[in-house]
């Protein structure tokens, strides 16, 4: 019998996914100025990923239909989803990716930098131990998050994949 391929959950832009299936992986593609926030409970092997675009929901009124779009509404959404899937919030560890400045236009708005600052503040507010900050620079990142062990495989253009 051939073993089943791991379940792969894709997180789109302004999306959030959680899994308690140890054979699952959660993936998001081409993080630019957006952040991929990976949160993991290593005892219960519950993990979740948020792909947030912007730091603050107050800049746009229609936040209730897309809470994962913003850091300030996406972080609590992710933590609630994790708890509902069986994670213990006091054990959550976090790895954060993205926040690049990939477009010349971004040099004015500095969205990646603002997203990073918002994530720093919210991680502290929610008592998340951030183990990895793979942020900034000028390249996009694709990340694959394993529910079996909490490792995140990172792909950037013109470089060999690496695991954090």
What proportion strand?
25-35%
The CA-CA distance between the termini, in Å, is 32 Å
Structural class by SSE content: alpha+beta
> What composes the largest sheet?
5 strands, mixed
What's the pLDDT, averaged over the residues? 92
What do you see in this structure?
The chain has a single domain, classed as 60s Ribosomal Protein L30, Chain: A, CATH 3.30.1330. The mean pLDDT is 92. It starts with 7 loop residues before the first strand and ends with a strand. The protein is globular, with a radius of gyration of 15 Å. β8 and β9 form a beta hairpin. The chain has 3 helices and 10 strands; from the N terminus they run βββββαβααββββ. The strands form 2 sheets. A 5-stranded mixed beta sheet has the order 1-3-8-9-10, with no helix packed on it. It is of the alpha+beta class and 164 residues long. Helix content is 20%, strand content 33%.
């Amino acid at each position: 019998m051939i073993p089943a391929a791991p379940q792969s959950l894709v997180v789109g832009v302004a999306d959030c996914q959680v899994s308690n299936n140890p054979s699952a992986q959660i993936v998001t593609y081409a993080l630019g100025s957006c952040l991929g926030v990976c949160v993991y409970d290593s005892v219960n092997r519950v993990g979740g990923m948020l792909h947030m675009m912007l730091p603050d929901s107050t800049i746009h009124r229609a936040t209730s239909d897309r809470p994962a779009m913003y850091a300030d509404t996406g972080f609590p959404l992710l933590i609630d989803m994790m708890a509902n899937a069986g994670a213990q919030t006091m054990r959550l560890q976090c790895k954060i990716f993205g926040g690049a400045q990939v477009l010349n236009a971004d040099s004015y708005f500095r969205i990646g930098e603002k997203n990073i600052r918002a994530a720093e503040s919210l991680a502290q507010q929610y008592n998340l131990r951030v183990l990895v900050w793979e942020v900034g620079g000028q390249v996009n990142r694709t990340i694959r998050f394993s529910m079996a062990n909490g490792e995140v495989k990172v792909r950037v253009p013109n470089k060999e994949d690496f695991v954090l």
